[in-house]
Amino acid sequence: EKGGYDYFMLKEIAEQPKAVADTLLGRIDPSGSLTLDEVRISPQELREVDKVVIVACGTAFHAGLIAKYAIEHWTRMPCEVELASEFRYRDPILDGRSLVIAISQSGETMDTLMALRHAREQGSKVLAICNTNGSTIPRESDAVLYTHAGPEVAVASTKAFLTQLVACYLVALYLGQVRGTKWGDEIQAVIRDLSRISEEVDRVLETMEPVRALARTLAAKDTVLFLGRHVGYPVALEGALKLKELAYMHAEGFAAGELKHGPIALIEEDLPVVVVVPSPRGRSVLHDKIVSNIQEIRARGARTIVIAEEGDEAVVPYADHLIRIPATPTLLQPLVATVPLQVFACELATARGNEVDQPRNLAKSVTVE
Ligand code: F6R
């Protein structure tokens, strides 16, 4: 059942290339356009939508945060992302023209279910992105796009997260395709890159030994910080969440631009700080800004653990540890950048003697509010 791995989590991390490929399967036709017939909300209805609202919890919420960048960029439609547990209590503004997307691996998360019920009461259409066939959330939604990660047993979500991202990109690209967008050429190119991305995830997995070795040297630390910008910011949040739940360490993710507004005061000698660096080719301004952030924290003594694209030489002088990831379009980078953070957290948990698949106080499916 664990397929020769010590933990389900390791097995599920290793299954990610397949999970990603399976989630794309049959959804990109040979001409390079998307067929999401299973999304039973008609193209006409999708053209009438004037805003997207995403609700989810935990790791699925981080997938939603990343989806916002993709949806707004490719469709120019406003997209809000909200923690499902907060959503209905603030009387959100919703109507028949809002498309609500509920993201849930288990399909049974009570907070997410209550949020989608609230949305439907306001007349909004709800699309579920879910990994569990026939579970409550898809049953109560207007439409569902299943992620094909296969069963996820470890409490900490890994392969489900990557497939949630894939599903979110598909929805964003599909909305762009159906509604028309000025990014036609870019959308075509991204669909091509997406169809090859599982190989890139595979390549990342092959280079994880140094990440494991690094994690073991940090087992006695109390705190690890994570920084990112743009889609790297939710990746930083996800890296921190994995470390909290698995290693029981104090971990926080920040948007790197916020450093100077407070968090930089936390930097002290030898504090490990993981930095997710955006591609230097895409939004190069962001890349240059984050390189200065790395310089700033290193000058204050931080031990910098830098995740950067292959060929990005600008980070080399400031990286105490450098983790390379393949070049991808900016918006797709989370699919490769998250993997080292999962491995890092898993290895730290093991080094600290924690139960990897069943972290204390946590349950796989949270069916209470
Ligand atoms: C983190 C984790 C949780 C879940 C969250 C939502 O590793 O597993 O944060 O992501 O409880 O669960 P689902 O996706 O089942 O709604």
As a percent range, the share of strand residues is 15-25%
The residue-averaged pLDDT reads 95
User: Quick one: biggest sheet?
Assistant: 5 strands, parallel
Strand order in the largest sheet: 2-1-3-4-5
Shape estimate = globular
Structural class: alpha/beta
* SSE pattern: HHHEHEHEHEHEHHHEHEEHEEH
Number of H- or I-type helical stretches: 13
**Distinct ligands, ions and cofactors found in the model:** fructose -6-phosphate
**Rg calc:** 20 Å
Beta strand count = 10
Helix content: 40-55%
Low-confidence stretches: none
List its salient traits.
binds fructose -6-phosphate, five-stranded parallel β-sheet, 44% helix, globular, 10 strands, alpha/beta, 13 helices, 369 residues
Structure in words:
- The structure is a single chain.
- Helices cover 44% and strands 15% of the residues.
- It has 13 helices and ten strands.
- β1, α4 and β2 (79-83) form a beta-alpha-beta unit.
- The strands form two sheets. A five-stranded parallel β-sheet has the order 2-1-3-4-5, with helices on both faces.
- The protein binds fructose -6-phosphate.
- Keywords: Aminotransferase, Cytoplasm, Glutamine amidotransferase, Repeat, Transferase.
- The active site is at 364 (for fru-6p isomerization activity).
